[in-house]
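Researcher: We're teaching a course module on how sequence relates to structure. For the next exercise, students receive a sequence and then see the predicted structure as tokens, so they can try to spot secondary structure elements on their own. Here is the exercise chain.
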Amino acid sequence: MTSRQTATLQTAPAQTTLLGAATLRGVGAHSNRPACMTLSPASAGTGIVFLRSGAPVGAASLIEALWSHVASTRLRVEIGAGAGGSLSTIEHVMAALSGLGVDNALIEIDGPEVPAMDGSAGPFVAAILEAGITRLAAPRRLLKVVAPVRVAQGASWAELRPAPAGLHLDVEICFPDSPIGRQRRAIMLAPERFCAELAPARTFGFVGDVEALWKEGLAQGASLENTVAIAENRVLNPEGLRFADEFVRHKMLDVVGDLALAGAPIVGAFRSYRGGHRLNVALVEALLATPSAFATLGATPPRRATAADICVLRQAELGRSLGL
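Model: And here is the predicted structure for the students to work with:
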């Protein structure tokens, strides 16, 4: 990103969307099923909405990326259910959109899981930047934390506290008796820092857990191409790590994607210890269930995506295929 692009996104009081479309293809890390995913512009107030191709056209086939639509947080975030189907492993593309400051997008995907790509948010960031980001004529809605909110499970916990501006992240993980050990990182989230410090960090897993995960129908598509694999107290990937603390950076990347399920950028300070998708989503739910803990700034009532949005997407696809 250029410094001019970064400054524009950091100070923009208006909502944003994509300037053009971006398409990515790959297989899911858990389902091992191929999918083609296209990110397209959306009007102000739409938010991030997924469309499962092949589902009946209508409201049921559109899945809004909101905490209230989360169906599972077991090793990934899955949203949706019923006639419109579900969609798994949305956290990395959500992190890319949130980290770059994209408020509105319509995402069509023809499979049950977002492609794993290389296990990071990097490919999504590259596609979004190539498509471009533009402002819309509507104020950005922000959720400002005004009182502490905390959730815990055993020794693990996550919390949000008030902060003057922006989103400050402080994440600590602990995996004793492994090459990960204890790692902690803190940053003030901004597009430039997200791209450089978090987006390239890949997901990771322990080879000793694979057989159990396979029995659950998980990790079917995991490989050294999309996962940092750990076994016998070492990293198996021949290229090694991208950062010495790549593990905690990836956990922080997941936090960015999970907090985006609030439906608007959060202004506050996030802190977690041994957290994960379950606690992150629970924290968003706890925040929004406590009206005294947050204030809404620059409020623009969100609009629900409809079948008309699908028509717009189809017209855009037709135009691209005809070279218009």
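Model: If you want an answer key for the exercise: Helices lie at 3-11, 91-99, 122-131, 191-198, 210-215, 246-259, 277-288, 307-321. The chain has two domains: 3-139+304-321, 142-297.
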